[in-house]
Structures are given as C-alpha cells and as structure tokens.
Amino acid sequence: MSINHIMKNNLIKDINEVLELYPKLRSYEEADGTHSLIGEIDIFDASEIYHGSFDIRVKSTKDYPYSFPDLYETKGMIAYEEDMHMYKDGRCCVAIMQEEEIRAKKGITLKEFLKEFTIPFFANQLYYKNCNSWANGDYKHGLEGILQYYQELLNEVSVEKVISELNNVLVVNQKGFEKCFCGSGKKYKKCHRNTHLELKKLPKNRVKLDYELIVKFKELLTVK
Predict the structure, then answer these.
(1) Is residue 153, in this structure, part of any structural domain at all?
(2) Pick the residue with more confidence: 167 or 121?
(3) Which of 68, 98, 131 is where one domain is finished?
(4) What DSSP letter does each residue of 39-53 carry, written as one string?
(5) Model pTM score
(6) Residues 61 and 152 in one domain
(7) Which residues does 9 contact at the CB level (< 8 Å), separation at least 6?
(8) Does the pLDDT value for residue 3 go beyond 50?
(9) Are strands 35-44 and 70-73 parallel, antiparallel or unpaired?
(10) Percent of residues, the chain, with pLDDT higher than 90
(11) pLDDT (tens digit, 9 = 90+) per residue, 59-98?
(12) Judgement on whether residues 85 and 160 belong to the same structural domain of the protein
C-alpha cells in the first residue's frame, strides 16, 4: 500500500470522526483532490453556554496531516480586514506562519485543528464583538508581527538582541557543557539551549528569512 493511499485513508477516517463530533459540518471533495469541511460551527464557553455560530470551510492539503489547513468564514459575519485577522478572500489568520509550520511539522488532524485553532479563533471574535478588545491581546501584522513572535519566544524586547539570537541559531554549534556564547558565564545547556531547540523546530530557511526581514525592519526603524 502506497504512502499516498495510507494518508488518504487516514484523512477519510479523520473526516468521519469530525462529522460525528460536529454534525453541522459535511465533507466535500475539491476539484484538486483535497477535501473540505463545510457548514456551521457552534461556539460554547467552558460552562457549555452557547454564544454563537459561524459558517465555515476548512480545507485540508494534499500532504495532510503534515501541513496547516486553511480556515474560511463564508458568510461575511466578520469584516474581511487585516485588523480582524481576516484576509480579503475570507480566509482566517488563526496563527502566525512560524507557529503554523512548527505545529504542522508534527502533524495536525482536522479534529485537532478545529479544537486548537478554529473554535478559539471564533470565540475570540465573539469576545472582540462584545468587549472591543481581544481576549489574549492583539497580534501585530507583517514585519512587526514576525518581530513580535520572536520577541515573545526569546523573551527579548530588544530588536538587536533578537537579531543576535537568530544569528546564533544559524551559525553557532555549541555543546551543552560549554560556556554559553552569550557571555553569561553559564553552561550552554543551562542558558540558551532550550531556546535554540525551540527555534530549531522551524525550518532553517524560515529562520534565515525571518532574520533577514528583522534586520531590514531594524534598518527602517533607524531611518525613521
């Protein structure tokens, strides 16, 4: 049995499991051979109190489950604007690209995607509608969003230090018992190793690209 056949069987099994859990959804095969879940998703809070529903489309990819699904809001209940974390085609920005790549690397099923990203996204939209603010704070867009991601991951506010950290991930190859490159005097394994291990979950070319973008962003800040 081929790998593609196994992956397709797993997808069909996962779709059937989702349809049992979310009976307002139905399965639809796209023209390119991928599959979509289409229908309505209900949003409840931790006390099982109903707060609203959204019409959605969740599209899987050909290399399912090792890539991030696309989520669409299909009835225009949310403004298709960047500040609402929506693209103009109705696609929902449920996570920053780096987070998507890390999560997809270990595989993400449709059930996991609905639980971890879809429902929290729409719950947050309802929270914003009622409170005019995001439940967990807002995430910036573009270059600022990329910088914010690494600032939070590295627990560093300084743009210069973020740049230094990313460069070290790309070029430094330290052993755990060696003194950390940062000059703290601590052994690498008790200083920056865990942070570097987290960063190395991202493809190296992604870190390299983000490093270059943040360097350019710093240059723009300097010009201003």
Answers:
(1) yes
(2) 121
(3) 131
(4) EEEEEE-TT--EEEE
(5) 0.84
(6) no
(7) none
(8) no
(9) unpaired
(10) 58
(11) 998 889 999 999 999 999 999 999 999 999 999 999 999 9
(12) no
- Nearest alpha-carbon partner for 92 in 131, 43, 59: 59
The answer on 147 and 96 residing in a single domain is no
Q: Check which CATH number belongs to the domain holding 26 and give it.
A: 3.10.110.10
Write the burial class of residue 185 (CB in 10 Å: 0-12 exposed, 13-18 middle, 19+ buried). Answer: exposed
Whether residue 157 sits in one domain with residue 93: no
Q: pLDDT tens-digit profile of 88-145?
A: 999 999 999 999 999 998 899 999 999 999 999 999 999 999 999 999 888 888 889 9
| Total number of domains in the chain | 2
Q: How far is CA 10 from CA 4, 14, 33, 65, 110, in A?
A: 10, 6, 15, 9, 11
Give strand ranges (E) for the chain. 25-29, 35-44, 50-59, 70-73
Residue 136 in any domain: the answer is no
43 in a domain, yes or no? yes
In which domain, by residue range, is 218 found?
142-223
Report the chain's mean pLDDT, rounded to a whole number: 89
Same domain, 62 and 151: no
Q: Which helix (H) or strand (E) holds 216?
A: helix 204-223
Q: Which residues contact 26 (CB under 8 A, 6 or more apart)?
A: 19, 37, 38, 39
